[in-house]
């Protein structure tokens, strides 16, 4: 592992202002190091995450401060690793997306306890990735990076390109050289460097790790590598928003997609923080993980009762979830079991059906990942695992316009000549 | 003209609750008729628009009521033809989209007075059409319609399909039968009837007018035909939001795209209302209209000093603006001249350049219509027509994901092998 990726106390960055973030703490051994652009523990190589000091907060003051904040993730600045004046800086400002009361979908699925869709297609580049990239960007600014980078095959590339453009960073995004033209355009339009790597996604990732350890990578913030501890915290805002939009209430059940598993673990972390801060009542909630059958390592491990996850080679239309070796898989298993949730998967046909179901009932056109969560919700209800009498929140993390191919079979319901006789013949009257 | 399209006092619908909407008034002769699903004056066939009774409002009470309202267009319910409890009803709830302070773009264009982009790609189906459809839907509900319909070649079809799905209406959208597959999918996914008409867009429109006058069309609300007076009012919310987001200030200059011209005229109406209600200071503002050169009937008329608009056959990549015979063209000319604005057009190459400029500087990926407004802004500054020392708001009314073809030439900036030597050779370090 390259030197830069491991925390070093010789470079403590003690002057770093990242608000309530106090240190980086190892998720495995608890070892703490100062805040910096590092992601792996120097003691045990476990993942580092942000440790906070929230001790000074008064619950009602904090609630008022949040409610008076901007209509984006920075309303939660007191709970994030960002400076207090973050909202004044140029960034893509994602979040505060709609929590849609999905009464029509509830009717179809037989949910009587209240069903909600947290619709993150409303973010600036139309996926939840804007949340994590916005967060990584602020860390990059504090650490003095001038280039924002990532490896990607889709949503992340656009989010990085857009945020870097707004904030005046150089961006350099690495993708497999043979990506579909549509995805290339979506990433290239923001005008940053877009570099095709001759190889597959694993080759791209390996190259990025190499670059971080090399002088050539100096000044480069890789949002999902050396900035990962900060980046990952962006997902906490989903938990905060859901609870605030429910009137500072915890939902009883949440259905969350699993790619690396990071999002699910951070949603759990966010809910725990709200409880500890007194912003919501301390009561149980269940978190359900959703995967595609064609990339279901966590679901398979859950069903087998395993604590570790066996890697898979992905083969699914849900490409934004297609991580065969999810880093946070074991943590996801722990959370699903601890909260009384579960992990389930659906196949490609069920994903497409669920995309259409959500669109038909709620007018929300979801990415394939949204088809996964809605499809899994349906399956969990049918199997008696998810309780339809409880308040349930289902995440849609992306936009159907980015995965049009999945529903390419959808088309005209009739073709007629431009006259009333033809209209009547078609049975449309 | 069919009987239903002309207001009849024999069916006064006196029990209609559309909030402050008091009547329909003819824009040409001023003749007033009761609220109903009609759009043309029975006296002169002029267009009907909503007349309001705002006499009971106290300015500061109204301001507080708006500011305490939901983060969507219904915060302005007191100024719209909707019942007071509109926010409780199922609808797509568009609006309250971001007003982005575009400092990077301002730098490139030399604007020193403050440049903002009102980014309506943040709406539920990613275009401003959600605003007008949401409004039409509420009128349809009040009038007892059960089917929501329209003729469309793009954004409108999706907006109608999505809103109808959410609100539990049947939808039936008419499109030319040979529309591109991608556009068909975007409209079809919501599960309503999607009917291809064997003919061009004019044939589709003609058929819809025929259907409205026929018993087969009973119970059908065509958002942009028999519900047009209500539908069109949705565009006022753009004016309200811009002013509120500026801190209840009028911008000095606005650059607005022209398709039918309705949006521009309603933005002017909205600004005038805010002035009369005392919500903003009474000061001059200039409205500039933006067209594509390949469909520039209003721009041509403006430059020739004409009061009437000569129809054109559209040929431009800005398809969402490609209305060759814009109904509100004369009103647009009047507003541009009265306010000291102008109407200008840009060609397809300039549109593409402007899409890339906006993406590169602000991380906003605009539809071709957004390329038109940004491109026209640049041209107006270069020509000394738009004053760069004044506060300027440019509208982006749609999303680049819907018009990917326009920037299909955008691609990789480099292709390398997955190693550092190749990276250095490419000059990326």
From TrEMBL, chains A, B:
The keyword 4Fe-4S does not apply. Its cofactor is pyridoxal 5'-phosphate. GO terms for molecular function: L-serine ammonia-lyase activity; threonine deaminase activity; threonine synthase activity. GO terms for biological process: isoleucine biosynthetic process; L-serine catabolic process; L-threonine catabolic process; threonine biosynthetic process. Pfam families: PALP. Coiled coil: none annotated. Belongs to the threonine synthase family. This is Threonine synthase.
